[in-house]
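Quick question, first post here. What does this chain look like in 3D?
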Amino acid sequence: MPEMFLLLEWQAQMKPLYRVPLMAEIASIPWNGYNVVSTFSGCGGSCLGYRMAGFRVLWASEFIEAAQETYRANHPTSHLDTRDIRTVRAEDILQATGLEPGQLDLLDGSPPCASFSTSGSREKGWGTVKKYSDKSQRTDDLFFEYARILRGLQPKVFVAENVSGLIKGTAKGYFLEILAELKSCGYRVKAKLLDAQWLGVPQQRERLIFVGVREDMGLEPVHPDPLGYRYTVREVLPWVQAVKWSGAPNNWRTSDSPSPTIIASGANISPTAYLSGGSYIRAEDVDLEQIFVGFNINYKQVWKPAGSTPAPTIKTAGEPRAEGLKVGQVERLFTIPELRRICAFPDDFILTGNFSQQWERMGRAVPPVMMMHIASTIKEEVLCKIK
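> Answer (accepted):
Ran it through. Tokens below.
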């Protein structure tokens, strides 16, 4: 079997080497005969995962301009609708795709989840318009906009993603309302908390995944089983010695485990993961120009790459400090190339904008490899069984 399909062997007894196919390899994967419409598409993480599983994405939507730029750079032939989802009608999507209600195989969506994240203000911001990425909007009602599109399109299957915080604390009320609304659209629905580290992603990332199957299909929703293995930081970033949690300066974690969760604001507010590499970090593996894009600093005056000199310390605000040049443990943020691997994106996936914007795209995205496993399970256990 070609190397590019190793990741598809997620039921295999032996652990395959970690490798995410490059963009050209993904583009060459044959169509499996099933179509997807994607809402709240971000930079295209979910769309890429569907493509890795052989699906074809007919239509996508994204409201944030910086995310639109990245999406277009990686999906140049896709139809991307840039309007606020509140103004998009199901009829618009049907017209753009040439489909009739009920013909679509799968509707995907990741409504912005900042309102329910355990790292955010949660209920204090519910019902209000607030800053989200480079826009200002209300986000706690967007799941109901997704349900409105679902009701109009009537796809055979739907997949919706959100943070684990939706089923914690007072947010459980929202969860029950959302579940009832999705079921009222004519679907059998199951929601399950999945952790990306058990679905081929070298990152601890819990996500609540709703799967719905239209009642007349006569089949039950399914989720993928966890793999019997997981990938560690050392396996995907062999030059990294250790990872630690933010806020725990002495709590170093071995790199023989997946990375802590990458959050969207990590590049300039509260990073969740630092690296310690000492002499293990090779200068040629640290792209300082990428790190310092968008910051008012001449990085060449801070650190001149030479031999195996460690990277400088990066503060939570994103600025390096010269006194961080230490021989032993060195704290720094992930570089963008490292971040791609931690988030299970292809090495040649294009990220546009400055360092903070590129980090945000990864922090908000569904890891493509995780979605590939979800999509492959739905294809095998539901779509292929529909008469």
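The longest strand covers residues 187-195.
The CA atoms of residues 88 and 149 lie 8 Å apart.
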